[in-house]
Amino acid sequence: MAAHAFDLMTLLDAPGVGPGRVRKLLKRWSGAAADPLMDDRLLSETLTPEQVASLPESRERVKRHWDELERNNVVTLSIVDPAYPDVLRRTLGDSAPVLLLCVGNLDIFKRPSVGFCGSREASHKGLATARDSSTLLSMSGINIVSGFAAGVDMNAHRAALVSGGSTTVVLAEGILRFRIKKDIRDVWDESRTLVVSEFGPNLPWSVSHAMQRNKTICGLSLAMLLIEARSTGGSIQAGRDTFKLGLPLFAAVYEGAPESATGNEELLSQGAKRLFKSRSTDLPNIRPILEAISAGQNSSPRLASLFA
To answer: Which residues have a Cβ under 8 Å from the Cβ of 24 and sit 6 or more positions away?
Structure first.
């Protein structure tokens, strides 16, 4: 399947060829050729003559990237690869990323996951809620998925690792730009982390990438937890995407909610479930999240054991 991943990366590198065009090509590819780039008829029917003519140059450029990816132990999964996460295919359907570039423990893809989203400038209460929720979910066997920004993202990842759990970092930039941040370096464990990017290996961060990345976080998760979201921006859009995908969305609720949480009430009014603290423990009550995951997994024996 590595050959297919190389070919798909070459196609995505060509001018004007985006994921939608590549998905169209894959749907029409009969598999008669050893790889998509060898099917001249298919290429001519799917791409413009200028795009077809640019493929040799794109191939050489991708070859240079590919060598660097291999040196950095990056695994490239195409959407036709058996190791590609089923939950992402199932949740995002035709919008699932064509390629995933990964570093870390790929077995983490098989674990039930909860996604975290929230402000880079979350309040102290918000960050504490993110840490406590991540810790409790991790201790219940749930993998934590989030971006790699300051604030909610970093606190969720760190708490997962400190508590002995696992975490998935979903990037809004190319995988070759990834560096372990100092805020989490002391607890980083390659056996319990998975770093994922759907973008070209060296592409920089952008707002559009961040919005797309948030959809992938949703797609890898069985439920989403919103800590603090403003009325505009990526966090509230991630909540809206959660609704569109039919996934359960939980929003943190506490007294004295700051401006960074004005979007929480909007999403709660649209159907998000409230995440309250337990009176007996003064910690977030994650049981409704676990129950929603179990329902989404058709009460699999592994998840059902969480409630035994």
So the answer is: 46
pTM: 0.91
Number of domains in the chain: 2
31 and 117 fall within a common domain: no
pLDDT tens-digit readout, 195-243: 999 999 999 999 999 999 999 999 999 999 999 988 889 999 999 999 9
Indicate which CATH number applies to the domain containing 290.
Answer: 3.40.50.450
In a domain, 77, yes or no: no
Q: By the 8 A CB rule, do 224 and 235 touch? A: no
Question: How far apart are alpha carbons 193 and 158 in whole angstroms?
Answer: 11
The residues with which 115 forms a beta bridge, in sequence order, are 145, 224
Q: Is 298:160 a contact under the CB 8 Å cutoff?
A: no
In a domain, 81, yes or no: no
pLDDT score at 181: 97
The pLDDT tens digits of the residues spanning 20-76 come to 899 888 888 766 566 777 778 888 888 999 999 999 999 999 999 999 999 999 999
Domain encompassing residue 11:
2-71
Tell me which H or E stretch contains 289. helix 287-296
Q: What value, to the nearest 5°, has the Cα angle with vertex 186 and ends 65 and 147?
A: 55
Same domain as 285, residue 142: yes
3-state DSSP call for residue 263? helix
Segment 247-289, tens digit of pLDDT = 999 999 877 667 677 889 899 999 999 999 888 899 999 999 9
Question: How many Å apart are CA 275 and CA 279, to the nearest integer?
Answer: 13
Beta strands in the chain (DSSP E): 75-78, 99-104, 113-117, 143-146, 167-170, 193-197, 223-226, 249-252, 273-275
